Amino acid sequence: MSRNLFVTGTGTEIGKTYVAGLLVKTLHDAGLDVAYYKAAMSGNDRRADGSLIPGDALFVKEFAGITQSMESMCPYVYEHAVSPHLASRLEGNPVRMEVVEKAFREVSAEHDYVVVEGSGGILCPLGYDEERIQLEDVVHRLRLPSVIVADAGLGTINGVVLTYEYMRQKGLPMRGILFNHYHEGDLMEEDNRNMCEEMTGLPVLSCIVKGDKTLAGITAEQVAALFS
């Protein structure tokens, strides 16, 4: 079975997929057997034949250069760019925990490391009408440690600390924070980094600049050590 790591964020459009791709690429480039998994993806385009393209999975696959099939990366793919619980209400095929867990176990049986990406922030509901499933339920069920992806800019202290406190209260282990959209030398962003570390006790593992193809300040060995 694999060692695993969950990637959550302080909100949607924060860059979780990009950071997940960087994590996968870092391990893959180091010669490790790594895979990607996401329980539910919303906001996907259709192919000419009408089937949906799992966009996040496609990005990670191409960005990291892994050969894993996209079909194994995500059991639930929706067209509408809304929370999965609402997308399934509009499109059918509601998320079931047993399906999420089965698909994850199949991936983890085939690979040494699995990066698991969440949908939106940690409070995003995956299912509601038929089976009430929060992202935290998936993290608990799969026994995943987490990293928090946050924007380096204005407002991030509030988002990081609220996410941290919620996850701490729910008993979800956290390994650290990854700052995205970072500008080196920016006084406010440097202070954001220091304050987030001070107020949560979590380390900022890497500060990521737009267009980065590697994770700054952290080695592949250190990335691998985040997984359990």
TrEMBL record:
Signal peptide: none annotated. The active site is at 38. It comes from Selenomonas ruminantium. It catalyses: (7R,8S)-8-amino-7-(carboxyamino)nonanoate + ATP = (4R,5S)-dethiobiotin + ADP + phosphate + H(+); (7R,8S)-7,8-diammoniononanoate + CO2 + ATP = (4R,5S)-dethiobiotin + ADP + phosphate + 3 H(+). Its EC number is 6.3.3.3. GO terms for cellular component: cytosol. This is ATP-dependent dethiobiotin synthetase BioD. Substrate binds at residue 42. Belongs to the dethiobiotin synthetase family. CDD domains: DTBS (cd03109). GO terms for molecular function: ATP binding; dethiobiotin synthase activity; magnesium ion binding. Catalyzes a mechanistically unusual reaction, the ATP-dependent insertion of CO2 between the N7 and N8 nitrogen atoms of 7,8-diaminopelargonic acid (DAPA, also called 7,8-diammoniononanoate) to form a ureido ring. SUPFAM superfamilies: P-loop containing nucleoside triphosphate hydrolases. Homodimer. ATP binds at residues 13-18, 56, 117-120, 180-181. Gene3D superfamilies: P-loop containing nucleotide triphosphate hydrolases. Mg(2+) binds at residues 17, 56, 117. It is found in: Cytoplasm. It comes from the Bacteria. Its cofactor is Mg(2+). InterPro entries: DTB_synth_BioD, P-loop_NTPase. Pathway: Cofactor biosynthesis; biotin biosynthesis; biotin from 7,8-diaminononanoate: step 1/2. Keywords: ATP-binding, Biotin biosynthesis, Cytoplasm, Ligase, Magnesium, Metal-binding, Nucleotide-binding. GO terms for biological process: biotin biosynthetic process.
